[in-house]
Amino acid sequence: MKLAFSTGRPAHVVLPANLLAKRNVDVTIYTAAYRRRFRQLAPAVHLRWVPQLVPTFHFLTGVQLPRPLQRADTAIYDHLVAFRMGNFDIFWGWASGSLAAGRAARRRGACFVLDRACPHVDAQQALVRTECERLGVPYHAEPDWFRARQLAEYEEADVILVPSAYSRRSFPAALQNKVMVAPLFGRVPAVENFVSTNHAPYNANSEAKPFTFGSVGGQPLRKGFLYLLQAWKRMQLPNARLLLRTDAPLRRFPALRDLLRQLPNVEIVGYCANMGDFYRRCDAFVLPTIDDGFGMVLLEAMAHGLPAIATNHCGSAELFISGRDLLIVPPQDADALGNAMQQIYELTELRGKLSSNALQSLRKIEGDGAFDLYSNVLDKILSRVHGREK
How much is the pTM? Predict the structure, then answer.
């Protein structure tokens, strides 16, 4: 069996490519990235280079080109892959950039797998539109032609692969029979890398270091920093600190800028060469995301022994039980987020229980064992293709 991937950048393609190569599938990746960027890619996997201007330019210069140019470049790359691609049994393309290649593959009898790491585009854009209004910035809708391409991909695909039930729920009923959930995009940290956290009783009135919550996120429109800062302001916790690990220009968003001016006990943390150093500064972790198809950062924090809070719009939270391994709250709800943080801050026994249980749950999926969550879906896809061949 022969399979082709199309991804302009490495993304998470190494995981399925390696797993499929182990199943004796002949795997080829069409990409604009060089092989050295695909860490730990199996030698048996072939790479075919296809030029893509925008990500190559960004990789070389660090400059982000305007979004209209990015969208046009994505479509051009897709057509180049369609032109260059040979005959395969399965074509596996990344969402938003695989319509032409997917159609070409289907005309040749291939199964078209569309990899969508996020919710349905309309559901995601509805969330972003709301956040723009609340953060005080203009909303820029996707061009009509680009949205039409994305919707057409959903219709053309034989399988729509998503990382969580959260993402799956965002698709309309007419597409649900195509959607498969493959819930892991990366490797869970190994047990020996876990960091023990001190869960001794915390005295807010002592001279000890502040109790520190940590959070990590990139895009303010999707990561829920607004609700985290609103909760933090309302709680007024004594001898407490909040660390936000982000490279995003938070002060460009009026609502965030106003809150940060009022909160001297919030620290913006820039680039960390070793994220373990960041987690070791924290006593607990909170992920207030409004849209995370998976969210590997939650597993990283829990693997460092941190009692954690996440929203139910974080796909990786679905691997755990709320109240046992972590606390799960609704998205865009500062009151619910604040209540959960207050419990973590005040209840020593709860912190210890969440940390201990989370580590036990992580051990069940650590290392290569985690890939079982993904491998089962790969087998279903291969079985579907075998069924079509008979």
Answer: 0.89
Q: What is the dihedral of CA 133, 134, 135, 139, to 10 degrees?
A: -20
In the chain, CATH 3.40.50.2000 sits at 2-187+369-389, 191-364
**Digits of tens for pLDDT over the chain (390 positions)?**
999 999 988 888 988 898 899 889 999 999 998 899 998 899 999 999 999 888 778 777 888 888 888 899 999 999 999 999 999 999 999 999 999 999 999 999 999 999 999 999 999 999 999 999 999 999 999 899 999 999 999 999 999 999 999 999 999 999 999 999 987 665 555 544 555 444 444 455 555 789 999 999 999 999 999 999 999 999 999 999 999 999 999 999 999 999 999 999 999 999 888 888 999 999 999 999 999 998 889 999 998 999 999 999 999 999 999 999 999 999 999 999 999 999 999 999 999 999 999 998 888 776 555 567 777 888 888 887 766 654
Domain 2-187+369-389 classification at class level: alpha beta
Strand runs labelled E in the chain = 2-6, 26-31, 46-49, 90-94, 111-115, 159-162, 179-181, 211-216, 240-245, 266-269, 284-287, 308-311, 327-329
Does domain 191-364 match CATH 3.40.50.2000? yes
CA distance 317 to 299: 9
